[in-house]
């Protein structure tokens, strides 16, 4: 399903060059439905942030932030449901996150 992934020339292995670009993005599958591309791009965005934070040696901070955010969601099931509601406009969900 997900067809985007992080790739560098050294990790491309046997992949032909047409499957990856100098930015590190590769396409490895066809999209079975339109939301698959959006999901893959969101996942790629998370991977980029992770790799950036790892390069800056800030993974402990990321782990702590994720733990605290998980605790907030555990205490506030209505917030968790609102953030998970894919029928809600993304801008509204972003406002919810900004208000935390």
Q: Over all CA atoms, what is the radius of gyration?
A: 17 Å
- Helical amount among residues, as a percent range? 55-70%
The oligomeric status of these chains comes to single chain
Order of helices and strands: EEHHHH
The separation of the N and C termini measures: 33 Å
- Name the average pLDDT: 75
Q: Any low-confidence stretches, pLDDT <50, length ≥5?
A: 1-23
Shape designation: flat
Structural account:
With 100 residues, the protein is mainly alpha-helical. It has 2 domains: 1-57, no CATH class; 60-100, no CATH class. It is 56% helix and 6% strand. Strands 1-2 form a two-stranded antiparallel sheet. It starts with a strand and ends with a helix.
Please render the helix and strand layout as text.
Layout: E1 4-6, E2 25-27, H1 34-55, H2 59-75, H3 77-84, H4 90-98
Antiparallel strand pairs: 1-2
Main traits of this protein?
single chain; 100 residues; mainly alpha; two-stranded antiparallel sheet; 4 helices; 2 strands; flat
Summarize the entry for a quick read.
With 100 residues, this protein is mainly α.
């Amino acid at each position: 399903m997900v067809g985007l992934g992080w790739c560098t020339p050294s990790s491309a292995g046997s992949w032909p060059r047409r499957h990856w670009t100098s930015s590190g993005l590769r396409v490895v599958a066809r999209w079975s439905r339109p939301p698959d591309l959006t999901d893959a791009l969101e996942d790629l965005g998370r991977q980029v942030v992770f790799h950036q934070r790892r390069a800056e040696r800030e993974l402990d901070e990321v782990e702590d932030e994720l733990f605290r955010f998980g605790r907030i969601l555990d205490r506030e099931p209505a917030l968790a449901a609102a953030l998970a509601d894919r029928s809600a406009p993304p801008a509204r969900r972003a406002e919810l996150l900004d208000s935390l």
